[in-house]
Design brief:
Organism: Lactuca sativa
Radius of gyration: 17 Å
Protein name: TIR domain-containing protein
Strand content: 15-25%
Strand order of the largest sheet: 2-1-3-4
Helix content: 40-55%
Distance between the termini: 57 Å
CATH class of one domain: Alpha Beta
Low-confidence stretches: 1-13, 141-145
Order of helices and strands: HEHEHEHEHH
Number of strands: 4
Keywords: NAD
Length: 145
C-alpha cells in the first residue's frame, strides 16, 4: 500500500482561494490584438476566469497594487514570451513578481513562446540575455539607493 504525504505548504497552496484561474502576462504591442485576444476569448468561453490587463502603462512605471493583487489571486500565470517581451521593463517586473508568487504562493507558471525560439529565454541569449542583464542592473541600483 502506497502512502502519500503532503507538506504543510503544499496543503496551504491547495486550499488557497483564487479569484482568477489564469493571469495573462504579455507585451501588448506584440500580441494584444492577435494571439492574446484569441487566447483570452477561448479561455472565457470555456468558463475559465481570466485576468487580462488592457491598460497601456508608461515606460518604467511600477507595478500597481491592483495588478499585484490580480497576480497574487491567480492560480495560474500564463506568460506569453514574444520577440519584444523582454524589451519592456514593465513585463520583466511583472515576470519577477509572478515568479515570486510561484515560490511563495504555489502559483503555476505556464510559458508560451509566441513567434520566437524558446532557447533564447531558457539560455538567456540574444535580446532576452541583454534585457535580463539590464533589468538586474537597474533593480540592483534601485535596491542600493
Amino acid at each position: 500500500m502506497a502512502s502519500s504525504s503532503s507538506s504543510p505548504s503544499a496543503m496551504a497552496y491547495s486550499s488557497q482561494l483564487w479569484n482568477y484561474h489564469v493571469f495573462l502576462s504579455f507585451r501588448g504591442e506584440d500580441t494584444r490584438k492577435t494571439f492574446v485576444d484569441h487566447l483570452y476569448t477561448a479561455l472565457i468561453q470555456q468558463g475559465i476566469c481570466t485576468y487580462k490587463d488592457d491598460e497601456t502603462l508608461p515606460r518604467g512605471e511600477l507595478i500597481g497594487p491592483s495588478l499585484k493583487k490580480a497576480i497574487e489571486e491567480s492560480q495560474i500565470a500564463v506568460i506569453v514570451f514574444s520577440k519584444s517581451y523582454a524589451e519592456s521593463s514593465w513585463c520583466l517586473k511583472e515576470l519577477a513578481y509572478i515568479m515570486k508568487c510561484r515560490d511563495t504562493r504555489g502559483q503555476i507558471v505556464l510559458p508560451i513562446f509566441y513567434d520566437m525560439d524558446p532557447s533564447e529565454v531558457r539560455k538567456q541569449t540574444g535580446k532576452y540575455g541583454e534585457a535580463f542583464v539590464k533589468h538586474e542592473l537597474e533593480n540592483k541600483t534601485i535596491v542600493e539607493t
